[in-house]
Design brief:
single chain, mainly alpha, 9% strand, 173 residues, elongated, three-stranded antiparallel beta sheet
């Protein structure tokens, strides 16, 4: 992030700001609903990368960039295919969900015990909700579940932990 006038943020394409301004009330209004027409109209907003404006994002600027790898990768690929902010946003959410789904499948497959307990934890309503956003918590949750599943696998199945296993756990941590 850049620090300008005691605010953390960065120069963002105008299209991203226009897209987020359409839904600014959703964070404060519990009665807010999103219609199909609003989604369709948001897909018509272009990125306009050449027109940039400073935007605050102080709460996300403290996270490691690793926390946004699935989102960043999907945006990189989708930007080659479309200039629509809506397509980038919803496409990235779908891709991030698929990454999470694959990783959670791997977690459950790896676990030697407590598979149903972890399935319950994975499917608690807040977990899929956070996963379907641009939150850094998605990758944090993925790495946490992977770490726990690999540790439990070694505790219950492995006779001896190898250097490669320790390096994998260290990398995940």
């Amino acid at each position: 992030p850049q620090k300008i006038d005691q605010r953390l943020g960065g120069d963002m394409p105008r299209g991203l700001i226009d897209f987020s301004n359409q839904h600014r009330n959703s964070a404060y209004n519990m009665e807010y609903t999103l219609s199909h027409r609003e989604i369709w109209n948001s897909c018509k907003i272009r990125l306009h990368e050449e027109e940039r404006q400073f935007q605050d994002f102080a709460n996300t600027s403290y996270y490691s960039p690793v926390s946004y790898l699935p989102q960043a990768f999907s945006l990189f690929v989708l930007k080659k295919l479309s200039n629509s902010v809506g397509v980038l946003y919803y496409g990235s959410r779908v891709f991030t969900f698929l990454v999470w789904l694959f990783c959670m499948f791997f977690v459950i497959k790896t676990l030697p015990v407590y598979k149903w307990l972890f399935t319950l934890l994975i499917l608690l309503p807040m977990h899929p909700y956070v996963t379907n956003s641009f939150s850094a918590d998605t990758v944090t949750n993925i790495l946490s579940f992977l770490f726990i599943s690999i540790v439990l696998k070694h505790v219950f199945e492995s006779e001896k932990i190898k250097l490669g296993d320790l390096l994998l756990l260290f990398t995940i941590a």
